[in-house]
Design goal:
- The chain is an alpha/beta fold and 176 residues long.
- The protein has 5 helices and 9 strands; from the N terminus they run E-E-H-H-E-H-E-E-E-E-H-E-H-E.
- Strand 7, helix 4 and strand 8 form a beta-alpha-beta unit.
- It is globular, with a radius of gyration of 15 Å.
């Protein structure tokens, strides 16, 4: 029987030399693989009070939408700067390839709401940590974070756990 990891392909030297890009589009394209990933990402949260799922741009939208649907809760996107209409709050951060700014609508989360943060990949933790800071600035309570892939050598899990966050991953890949 295949595991989630078996559905993920590696593209060498993308987006630049020395990077082993873990491509989840092959997982998403396979109905069994995609269902397996969503079911496994949902499993730790059975019976927990979650008010909204927050997906990090861009593949976190695919996962977050499916998970929010299964949980019958709202979905909130955290996007790259300039992509959301209306009033937003912003957070700058460092990622493995440079710097970026993420934004969320300033009314997307209410004080005290329980939030599950999802994305496809945990590398340095910069994107997830920026998302968490945005959610906390709006008064949200982070129940957990969930990812398909962890790249342990890049230390993102440690970054999030040092902030007191629960981190769930479906598989790990060695190397950057």
């Amino acid at each position: 029987m295949k595991s989630v990891k078996d559905y993920i392909r590696t593209i060498v030297d993308f987006p630049h030399e020395g990077i082993m890009f873990r491509d989840v589009t092959t997982l998403f394209a396979d109905p069994r693989g995609f269902r397996m990933a969503i079911d496994q990402m949902l499993h730790p949260y059975a019976g927990m009070q979650i008010d909204k799922v927050v997906g990090l741009e861009a593949r976190g939208f695919i996962l977050g939408g499916a998970i929010a649907h299964q949980l019958t809760v709202g979905f909130v996107p955290i996007r790259k700067k300039g992509k959301l209409p209306g009033a937003v709050i912003s957070e700058a951060y460092t990622l493995e390839y440079g710097e970026a700014v993420m934004e969320i609508h300033d009314d997307a989360i209410s004080e005290g709401e329980n939030i599950l943060v999802v994305d496809d990949l945990l590398a340095t933790g910069g994107t997830a940590a920026a998302g968490v800071r945005l959610i906390k600035r709006l008064g949200g309570n982070i129940v957990s974070t969930s990812f398909i892939i962890d790249l342990p050598e890049l230390g993102g899990r440690k970054v999030l756990e040092e902030q007191g966050l629960d981190v769930n991953v479906l598989c790990e890949f060695e190397g950057a």
